[in-house]
Amino acid sequence: MYFAWLENPQSVHKSWDSFFRKASEEASYGSAQPQPTSVARESRSAVSSRTKTSKLVEDHLAVQSLIRAYQIRGHHVAQLDPLGILDADLDSFVPSDLITTIDKLAFYDLQETDLDKEFQLPMTTFIGGSENTLSLREIIRRLENTYCQHIGLEFMFINDVEQCQWIRQKFETPGVMQFSSEEKRTLLARLVRSMSRFEDFLARKWSSEKRFGLEGCEVMIPALKTIIDKSSEMGIENVILGMPHRGRLNVLANVIRKDLEQIFCQFDPKLEAADEGSGDVKYHLGMYHERINRVTNRNITLSLVANPSHLEAVDPVVQGKTKAEQFYRGDAQGKKVMSILVHGDAAFAGQGVVYETFHLSDLPSYTTNGTVHIVVNNQIGFTTDPRMARSSPYPTDVARVVNAPIFHVNADDPEAVIYVCSVAAEWRNTFNKDVVVDLVCYRRRGHNEMDEPMFTQPLMYKQIHRQVPVLKKYADKLIAEGTVTLQEFEEEIAKYDRICEEAYGRSKDKKILHIKHWLDSPWPGFFNVDGEPKSMTCPATGISEDVLTHIGSVASSVPLEGFKIHTGLSRILRGRADMIKNRTVDWALAEYMAFGSLLKEGIHVRLSGQDVERGTFSHRHHVLHDQEVDRRTCVPMNHLWPDQAPYTVCNSSLSEYGVLGFELGYAMASPNALVLWEAQFGDFHNTAQCIIDQFISTGQAKWVRHNGIVLLLPHGMEGMGPEHSSARPERFLQMSNDDSDAYPVSVAADFEVSQLYDCNWIVVNCSTPANYFHVLRRQILLPFRKPLIIFTPKSLLRHPEAKSSFDQMVSGTSFQRVIPEDGVAARAPEQVQRLIFCTGKVYYDLVKERSRQGLEEKVAITRLEQISPFPFDLIKQEAEKYPRAELAWCQEEHKNMGYYDYISPRFMTILRRTRPIWYVGRDPAAAPATGNRNTHLVSLKKFLDTAFNLQAFEGKTF
């Protein structure tokens, strides 16, 4: 650059032009001589001046490289471990350019004599404050103070210059970490509440109980409160938190400010499961609280989302709930609602859902405009040394994927922690991007209070036993500097002691025991109307023909002028228009009408998943793409009515675990929305099994957490192989909580609704578009919310027989849990020799084969549309209607899969074990389907032959 400037000063930035001019003047100053008469002498003088200038430029560039080295690698030598025995980056190696002053100078070809020279500071540093030049000695001192003390900064990988400059200014500017006496006193008081009294109080009262205390990272409480205070100051009104169990009780007490008596009463050994869900331990429960933020005097709503021991599973749930709250408030920029996630170091590095969640952070339909992540870095997992638990230097390295700055901080320096958290909150509000605060701390006890850590970590815990608690260290510091007196400190402790003791006394009152205190989304007004409980009935789900026709006309047209669609799509739209004329619908149109009718009624609909906009099987086409204008799209569903609710349909990242968790959280925020997640193939839900097992199947039982999320799982044996065939209905049915041996006794007027109210979720496999339409609408019209699992078809999407008439969807019609035989056999039931029960697509194979064999009078076929909760009442009616018929269950799935193991004992309960229910289907197998077309057809023919062989079960016993 210098040589380019010599040839043309205009070829470099004006700041470099100025710098080179000044350097040249300094190099020639003092060596000026009378004008030489000899040309040779003049030439030597020019060379000498040029050499001096080059050296000066090289030295300045070396200093700039040194500054950059601190900015990039200074965190590797920062003093982050409060125990002083480990390296936070798992490596004791110190970069060669940052070892000692002498080594640094040598690395950059500088001399000790250069230490007192003044150097021009580059525009990429703020260590000079208002000064433009500093001595090299002072430059190094300030860089050491900024980058190598108790804060380690990782941000130079961010590819945005403005963002890097912002961070540099926040940390490099001299004097930025100055706290007033009042701020220090507030910090001390928060540490007192966090550590000295709350954790100690629990330990004294319940010494033999697991508490998963925060001891060793008590500074997390003031850290969280600082983030909330700063965010409230910048306009945030709602903060949604997710965290594992360590420190959860402390956060409930001292951050969310849950009544202490409510926490203490959860330790009552006589507490019944009815008082706390299924008895899930207190350090997994959630909470919702509206209060005044005493620092800003503004209202703030805090929600802590319930979380199982699958530590990071809550991450996408929190993000989904945050997104929903922002959506309902019209908060597109995240200026009113934000999320905070607390992580453990081992889980943050080890669990893939963290990466999946980060990858949602900037996607348009999933962004929450930045999350503040707090990592409680114990420097150990349960008993596993981090050197055996991760391959990355830091547990936080996964955050680099989204260019999130990472602030490592020694948790035994409370003021450094508070400053870092304040900057993190500002970053999130300024740039609407994620940020990570890594609290490098320790765990004073084992994994829980009953655990013995010395078995596996003797050296670490010897040091921990000697470690002075952070509260004492900070109190001693403030007392020594005169900020507080010893008496004031002791009074602060005594004050909180009294608060805890009084709350402990109140906790004995059984009247305060109620699970409503542990809800993270209370849904006010949903369960009651004018103060009275809702009626346990469900209205008919049909709608007027005018509405059906209107929705159909929009679904078969393009609402925007001049919008060019694909020619193949034009044929699809014409086909829809023809169906509307004939008063019929296929699967896609039935779904369109269900969504559209709910939008008309003010119900927000959100459909998410891989390729859902078009549909995996190219059947949906809810988003139209202009074939001539890039990125110009149209969503006709949002053009149905002038004042309709909004429809959101969004292709997700190639994620199941993270995205399903996100949609679950979205559905958690409000009961007045239909939130659906569709798997690309039903089989793919297995990578989201944790969300299904821990939140969807069990959420109400564990946390009294109603949720109406809908899972759409394409399912069906089509000869496409084991990866694209089975949504594994047996797994969902095994987790259903209805009793196979007990015929339900309904206490409500509506047997169907009574069953639904008692179940943990609803499992259906619809065989008609009309029934699919009705079950989606019923999901919203029910007076409560339950998860809905729908096994959706593939071949039925275009099957000529899988169509429904408007007559099955108009006002007065409803979802049919069971669709009975309505053909010839139903008119003479006493002549029927076999009654086949089935569900889903196989019905159409059975009807075709029955017709081929001419057995319409002898064989009846009944469809089970709602599998769980099992429709005992309707199945009983069907069985009794055909008293002389053999009963068979036919499924296309293998015998050890599908529905048979679920339905068989329930049939026995209905029939009082007087009649067998025979199995017809494929033999047991390890894989759920074959990928060989011929093998598929052979096995299909085999079980269809059995289904209609009226002598097949003769001589068999049951």
Automatic annotation (TrEMBL):
Family matches, as Pfam families: 2-oxogl_dehyd_N (PF16078), E1_dh (PF00676), OxoGdeHyase_C (PF16870), Transket_pyr (PF02779)
Region named Disordered: 30-51
InterPro entries xrefs: 2-oxogl_dehyd_N, 2oxoglutarate_DH_E1, DH_E1, KGD_C_sf, ODO-1/KGD_C, THDP-binding, Transketolase-like_Pyr-bd
Stretches assigned to the Transketolase-like pyrimidine-binding domain: 585-799
GO molecular function: metal ion binding; oxoglutarate dehydrogenase (succinyl-transferring) activity; thiamine pyrophosphate binding
Signal peptide: none
UniProt cofactor(s): Mg(2+); thiamine diphosphate
Reaction(s) this enzyme catalyzes, per UniProt: N(6)-[(R)-lipoyl]-L-lysyl-[protein] + 2-oxoglutarate + H(+) = N(6)-[(R)-S(8)-succinyldihydrolipoyl]-L-lysyl-[protein] + CO2
Superkingdom: Eukaryota
EC number: 1.2.4.2
One of the record's GO cellular component terms: mitochondrial matrix
Single Gene Ontology BP annotation: tricarboxylic acid cycle
Classification via NCBIfam families: 2oxo_dh_E1 (TIGR00239), PRK09404.1 (NF006914), PRK12270.1 (NF008907)
Subunit architecture: The OGDHC complex comprises multiple copies of three catalytic enzyme components, the 2-oxoglutarate dehydrogenase (OGDH/E1), the dihydrolipoamide dehydrogenase (DLST/E2) and the dihydrolipoamide dehydrogenase (DLD/E3). OGDHL/E1-like isoenzyme may replace OGDH in the OGDHC complex in the brain. The presence of either ODGH/E1 or ODGHL/E1-like isoenzyme in the complex may depend on its tissular distribution.
Name of the featured protein: 2-oxoglutarate dehydrogenase-like, mitochondrial
Encoding gene per record: OGDHL
